[in-house]
Each structure stands twice: as structure tokens, then as C-alpha cells.
Queue: 2 jobs
Job 1
Amino acid sequence: MRVHRSFAFVFSLSLGIGCFFAAPRAGAKLRVVGTLPDFAAIATELGGDRVDAESIILGTEDPHFVDAKPSHVLRVNRADLLICIGLGLESGWLPVLLTQARNGKVQVGAAGYLDASQFVQVKDVPTKADRAMGDVHGGGNPHYYVSPPEMLKVSEAIYQKLVALDPGGRAGYEGRWQAFSKKYQEKMATWKSAVASLAGSKVIEYHKSWIYLLDWLGFISAGALEPKPGIPPSPSHVTELLQQVKGQGVRFVFRENYHADSLSTVFAGKAGAKLLDLPTMVGAEPGIKTLWDKWDRMVQLLTAK
């Protein structure tokens, strides 16, 4: 797995971290930390003024590459609830943050730890996973956060967790959840209708990140630009892939907006496909501040003439 780690300063800071932070005061806001900015956005929507939510990953970052920073340790140390992607996506950097933060409330198995992947229908579960296969996750594909229906399930789990941790705010959480889920269902119907005419479109993925969205849209993955997950495209693989998809009518190339490379552009041009840099997370582009903004933008890019 591709990981960068900045442990030395984090470790030295953590030695004294307990001296700087006390337990939350009674009546204080619930502090929610999501590894993913989408989780923080959901908690903000559902929590209202009872919640302070922030994320570790920026929407412009590749979640496979995260440096363990002192600011991350402080966030985890102060959290009442930690929401993670799971399925091994954060395994190269989240465990060290949990260890250095010394916050028993959000350790694995504690009441304040929420693995969002437990609530989704996991896809691409390998029968066998080893390093020779590239960046393959043994528990399944962790990129479910690009799928509207899967993230609706996650949103409900976050709502239930907020109620469990802050039962005094139940009425407010329930009211916001009802409004949120109603709007979500309406938006999903609008998005699906907008792209209905594109069903059956063949797509080349940069990274194998899109299976959840492709299945929901009725699109078909025709291959990936990475020869193996996590291995950057090479000229030889791109040439081979072009030969494989020749005459198949590939319509789109899906690329995360943090994967900028020239080979994707070359491939799309030669394949006659439309290259789309899609926002996978809240904050991936200016103006994408909510889940609605993210999928509104995706639909806009897919349907643009």
C-alpha cells in the first residue's frame, strides 16, 4: 500500500498530549472527527449546533497518501466520535494516530469509534489478496463513498451514533435526519433521472475506485489505467489497454481529481472517450461543501455536451 508517514514529531508531541487536553466539559458540543470530509459534512448536517465536526483527509488528497501530522493527533485526541472509511484504506496511517492520540473514547471497539464500511454492501472482495496484486484491500473495495445509496446508509448510521452518544439531543437529531433523508432520496431520484440515457456506457477507470458508482448508474467498467491498483499508468500498459478496448465504444475515462497525469489524456484522446476529473469527496473542488454539491457536480460533468 502506498503510504507516507511523519511519525517522529507526532510521537514526541504525543508524549505530553494528555497534559494539554482535558475531558470535554458537560454541555459541550459533541466533537466528531471523520477521516473523510464527507463524514464531517454529514455530521454537520445532522448535528446542527450540538456538533463540531472536522475531517483528517482533505477533499483534494489521495486517501492512500496521508502524513500523520501533529494536527491530526490533536483532532483525534479531542474527539468524542471518530468515523473512518474502513476496509483497510486508512491502515497505513490511522492506527498510529489512534495510538498517539491516547483517547480511549475513539479506539477500535469503543463507543466513539464508527467504521462506516460496516453499513455498506461491500464490492470487489478478493478471494486472495497479496502485495503482488497491487493496492488491493482484503476486505473489499473501500471507495463506497462515491455512491449515493451507500452513503445514505452511512448517513443513517452516523445519525444513530449521534443519538447514542448524545441522547439529550435526540429530538433535534431525529428532526434533522428526517429532513436530510427526505432531501437525499429526492436528490438521488433527480441524479438517476439526469443520467438515465447514459446507462450502459463503458468506462475506463484510472484507479479501481468507481465500482459502486458504476453499478448504481448502470455503467460498465472496461478496464483501468493503473496496471495494478496503486501502480501509476505506464506507456506500455496504456498501449495494451487501447488495443483491448478498440472498437468497444468506451465513452468516459473516470479519474480522481487528485490523479493528474498525461497518459490519461493521451488514452482518452486515442480512445475517443471523454476524460472526466470527478470529485470523489467533499472539498475536492471549490464550492463542493456538501454531499449534494459533490454528486450535483458529477452529474453536471457526465451530462455536459
Job 2
Amino acid sequence: MKRRQFLGFVGSHVFMWPFVARAQQPERLRRIGVLMPIIGPIAQSEVTAFLGALKGLGWAEGRNLQTDIRWGAGDADRFQSLSKELVSQQPDVIVGTGTPVVVALVRETRTIPIVFVNVADPIGSGFVEGLSRPGGNLTGFTTDNSALGGKWVELLKELAPRTARVTLLFNPATVVPLKIYMPSIQAAASSLAIEVNAAPVHAQDEIEGVITAQAGDRRNSIIVMPDPFNVTNRQQIIALAARYGVPAMYFTPTYFAESGGLVAYGSDFAEQFPQAAVYVDRILKGTKPADLPVQAPTKFDLVINLKTAKALGLDVPPTLLARAAGVIE
């Protein structure tokens, strides 16, 4: 090779080195925090669906994404400590599940973008200014439908027609605010001549006392309110309701009816996790949470456990079966 050609070859390649080096630079690592109110197979499958959707959008753990997941145990104090941990890591986005979890997150930050799922009343809880224009650092997916409370009463009466008293089971520290559902619960109960009683519990060992108080009178039923405490203790609640012969209505089919609960009516929380991944992707690419509208479910499912109904001596009306999205035999 002639000297001039050689120098030209070297010069051109030296000139290209900065471009090659820039092209080979690793992608910027973005950080996501995830706070789940409980741990268990269903919650883990929800997180898996979320991460799978992110992967489909081009985000890969260790390449351009680092995910920090925290698992609660249906305990409000733990929600707060885990929120503090996540916020201290200064992630680019935090995903929070359920109203009590998001309350804890908001106490720790009003600047880090938060995408919520399974929040009952984002406006009333002060998370957003409006559904179409959230206006702050939060947006996400709500289960907001205050009429659900009335539906729980009506469906319970239809399935257990002797019901004359309904007891609401919840933990005050972790329950979705009762004020969301009480107007519709009271309206439906009044129209059906049903008495409504609140039964707050603060620890697992108080659950049995509430359920045994309903035993022995077929006019008594229970509504298990939306609450991560109730989800965490669902097997105990379901087993005690069966042992003492108390009809119980639950707020989500996934966690309760499919685990032996008598009847559940509500939306499928799992569907919101892939949707949350889309919002996280948009935020990581520059969209502000304030510009992403809060979305509400359009579908609510009724699931009936016929085996449990039979054990309780309940005859499920054919009209109710015809409306059910799922029947467990």
C-alpha cells in the first residue's frame, strides 16, 4: 500500500472511531419502582404481566431498565416504610397498586411520576384533579364505580334471599374509603329492607369473631370490602364463612370466588397491569403524567361458586346464573 493511501486509510478510520464509540455506548438505564400491597401467586402473576408488557415495548431488565419491586403484606405501616424506601432510590417512575399504597406513596413524593392501578376514587382521594386531566405527578387506572356497593347488596339478596342484615368486613387502616360505596350500599339496602352494620377489624385474629357473630341466623350475610388486608387473609375469611354457614359477597372474582368464595362481582384487576406498562413507557419517553388521562374499567364480572352455594344450602336462581361471566362447579 502506498504511503498516501495508508495515511488516508488510517485517517478515515481514526475519524470514524468517535462515531463507532458513541454507537456502542450502552443505553441509558431507567429505574422503575413497583409497590404491591400483598405477595402471593396472583400478585406475582400481575407483576409478571406488567414486566412482560414492558418487554414488548422494548424495555429489558439490565439493558435499559432496572426494576425495584416491593411487596406489602396488607399492612398500612409496611406500605409507608416501603414507599419511603422506593422514593429514596429516586426512580424515574413508580407503579403503585391500590388506594392505601398510593396514599403512602403520595406522602413521600409529589414529584416522581406515579402510575396507579386498582384505585377506587382517585379524585376523592386527592391523587388527581380530574380524570381527563390529572394535573399532577399521578395518573393511572381506576376501579371507580361507586354503584358497585349497591350491586353487592342486590346480588347477595338475590342469591341468599333470607338476607335481612349485612355486615361489612374491613380493616380501617387499609380499606378503600367506605364513603365511596356507602351511598349505593345504603340505598340498595333500604329498598330491600336490609340492615347494614360495619365490622372493623384491626388484626387477623379479630376476623373469626366477626364471622361467628353472624352464624346461626340465616338472615345474616357479609360483604367483604375492597381491602388488601382482606385479600391477604382471604383463605381464612373464605374458610370461616364456609365453616359457620355465612353467605359472603366479595369484590373481585380473581382472588375470592376462584378460591372458594360464594360470589364476587367486580372488575379484573389483572387487566390493568399491561395497560400500566404502556403508561410507564410513555412517561419514560417524555410524556407527563398530567397529560395521560385516568382510565376506568368498562367491564365488571359476576362469578358464582356453585359448590360453595350448595354447601350453604342456597339455590342459585337461573336468572342469576345466566348473568354470570363465570360459574365454578
